[in-house]
Amino acid sequence: MAFWIHLCADFATALPPSITTSSTTTTVFESMTNLDARTLLPADLLKSAHHTVMDQVEPFRLTNHFTITSPFGQFEAYGQDMLRIRIQEIHALAKLQEEGSLDQLSAFGHGVAHAALSPLKFVVNLFSDPVNTATQVPKGLWRATTRLKEMVTGERGQLEGPASKEIIGFSMVKRKIADKLGVDVYSSNSVLQKTLNRLSWAGYAGDTGVRLLTIPVAGPAGAILTGTTLSSAVGDLLRDYAPEDLRRLNRDKLEAMGIDESVIEDFLSHVWYSPRHETVIVQALSEMQSVANRGRFLEVAMSAQFEEDALFFQRLSEMLVAFHLNIRPLNDIVAINNQLVAGYANNHTLIAMIPTDRLTWQREVEEAAQHIRRWKNPEHPTQKVEVWISGKPTPLAEKNLKAMGLIVKHNARDVLRWAATTSQGESIMTSFR
């Protein structure tokens, strides 16, 4: 299991709330006591007209466990990236409520499960009366597609929806609505999924009382580097293509990179990677055209054991491609001790990215830092090692990382977002720690 993932997603256990001392050094590790959301979050994340993040925050390794209350229920989020996604989803639900769409749906959706075009009845009728069944599908929604092989040979994830809904065009409507709302159509948020399904049935049936496409919500679905070509390209793919189409496109791109077929299939069939996670990661790797050994990223990413792990690797891929395109070119993707993935830049620098908002000094962090510091490759002589952290390290973590000879960079998320919208290049490197 990768070190960073071991730190970020070992949700079953946490370090005891006490200070311990390493058995091999004199380093004092930081306690894992509860934190206060008011000291961690900016005002817009902490509270809005539609949500409140509860004050008590429980640390879990490299991430924090947030609890969000809202008129639509209570939600959990591990880390600020997932917190932003959940808050965006709450805003989308609130916008629908303000527009009156939710009230109209309560009257509309009661009998939709028994409609002639419901997925179960559609599949049965497709085999018993294919001609008449096909004619029931609204014009423009039927696609005699190349995705049928994927539907037959592949197996959809639990959040992708049944293949029958894709065939009749329902899922296409759902993807367009999710895109308009700025939410992830493959989200694990059950409240959001239920609402998207009801909206999509209304839109699919042509219900003019539900103003489906006049309710945009600001911001894309959980994108970390908004405004970049990666963000817009992936958004278009997720809106316009079915999971089977995405899987085929992603497979083609990975094959073009020369990645081993078994690695490709294991990644594309991994239980915790949704079509969104897969597509972002593949697109990021694809845009690193001159970088060698991109398959190593997938090999390490296969250690994901939770949804949060998949989001971690998605963010990591976004950070690497943003660095490569806008800060300094990478030559290679390296796997350190087969558990950590990093970039090797063309100025003989090892670049270790950590998508976390608050890096505390724990035993596992020290072990991972030691592996990074000691990494050697005859083909890649390393003159320095940089650790890029999405947020900030604690003073103790920064002190100890620097004592190991590592260069620590703060606020990498903001720096990379800024770099993606400027032409500053390497001059940005001098503008932050």
What does this structure look like?
This protein has 433 residues and is α/β, with parallel strands linked by helices. The protein folds into 3 domains: 3-83, no CATH class; 107-204, no CATH class; 229-431, no CATH class. 47% of the residues lie in helices and 13% in strands. It is built from 20 helices and 12 strands. Strands 1, 2, 3, 4 and 5 form a 5-stranded antiparallel sheet that branches. Strands 6-7-8-10-12 form a 5-stranded mixed sheet. Helix 1 packs antiparallel against helix 18 (363-374). The longest helix has 20 residues, at 80-99. The protein is globular and about 60 Å long. The protein starts with a helix and ends in a 13-residue tail after the last helix. The relative contact order is 0.11.
